[in-house]
Design goal:
The complex is a heterodimer of chains A (241) and B (71). By secondary structure, chain A is mainly α. Chain A is 77% helix and 1% strand. Chain A contains seven helices and one strand; from the N terminus they run αααααααβ. In chain A, α1 runs antiparallel to α3 and α1 packs antiparallel against α7. Chain B has a domain of 39 residues. The mean pLDDT of chain B is 86. The chains are: A mainly alpha (241), B mainly alpha (71). β1 of chain A pairs antiparallel with β1 of chain B, so a sheet runs across the interface.
């Protein structure tokens, strides 16, 4: 495969999956965001930080439209970013991934990455709607979230390489090692420092639709890159020219 | 007259240049959507960018929906 084609299909599959992610979010997550921001506004009025005036609502509408309109665009940008990571990992691991063809190999990898760099970190640091989250702790929360993703993502690579050196049932030791490390990390890392003041049913429903949105990305990027790879790569072993 | 042609092929691993380019896209895209608080526009806008937060507001809804810390 030509290098330019490799880059193009990786970026295209990321952008398409990001477009799907943004569109799904627009359809199913936005109502919960509106609801949460409504509570946030009521809290501002109650605390006296803002007044319930026409000027407030005019300003609110202007930036809220900007925020909503960015959902799909941000989906494409995030899709390009995560799709690039996915493309790199797929290119480096394709020859050793299980599966009969490129689509099944890419889907297998997308499931692994969905679990390790999204679902497991999400269980410790789940998504929160607006009105949950203190601006003073945003840097700490970002560090914690990224750290968990990095620990999970890097350790799955290490334990995968370890499993290649083991034979037969001993390969499961690597899986157990990864699971053990994740349990230790889960327990050892500090909790999100922010108190949840929003209604829990809103928070839980928001988290559910958030998972659906991100999952739509990982499902789509695996299928799309696998399809493109199958279409454009005619070599049995990966070759770049 | 004979013509010779040389084709260079690398088997098994993607070219470093391609990986580097995609890694830059990954890091930059992730920063834009997940973490920018005015940093990028501050290059042209100065300190006002940290107040205006154009990119933060543009990516605000995706930031929450994708699980990134916000506010």
């Amino acid at each position: 495969m030509k290098t330019i084609v490799f880059i193009a299909i990786v970026l295209a599959s990321g952008a398409i999956a990001g477009l799907v992610h943004g569109t799904v979010n627009f359809a199913i997550v936005e109502p919960y965001l509106d609801q949460a921001i409504g509570i946030e506004n009521q809290n501002l009025f109650a605390s006296g930080e803002e007044e319930d005036t026409l000027e407030f609502w005019a300003e609110y509408e202007s930036y809220r439209i900007w925020q909503k309109s960015g959902q799909v665009l941000a989906g494409v940008i995030l899709g390009l970013a995560m799709g690039s990571l996915f493309g790199i990992v797929f290119a480096l691991s394709r020859n050793s991934l299980p599966g009969k063809n490129d689509i099944s190999k890419a889907v297998f990898l997308s499931v692994i990455m969905w679990v390790t760099i999204y679902l497991i970190p999400f269980l410790k640091y789940p998504a929160n709607p607006p009105t949950v989250g203190d601006g003073e702790t945003v840097v700490l929360r970002a560090i914690l979230y990224l750290s968990f993703i990095a620990i999970s993502g890097l350790s799955v690579v290490v334990f995968y390489k370890l499993s290649k050196k083991l034979n037969g049932n001993k390969k499961y030791l690597a899986l157990a090692g990864y699971a053990g490390l994740m349990v230790i990390t889960f327990v050892a890392m500090p909790d999100n420092p922010d108190e949840i003041t929003a209604p829990m049913n809103l928070v839980n429903e928001f988290r559910f639709v958030s998972v659906l949105g991100v999952s739509s990305f990982w499902a789509c990027v695996g299928i799309t890159l696998g399809f493109f790879w199958k279409k454009f790569d005619k070599t049995p072993q990966m070759e770049y020219s | 007259m004979s013509k010779s042609e040389q084709i260079t092929r690398t088997v098994g691993k993607p070219p470093i240049l391609a990986v580097a380019l995609l890694a830059v896209v990954f890091a930059f895209g992730l920063f834009i959507v997940g973490f920018d608080q005015g940093h990028i526009f501050s290059v042209i806008q100065g300190v006002d960018a940290y107040e205006e937060l154009y990119i933060h507001e543009l990516t605000h809804d995706m930031r929450h929906a994708a699980g990134f810390p916000c506010h």
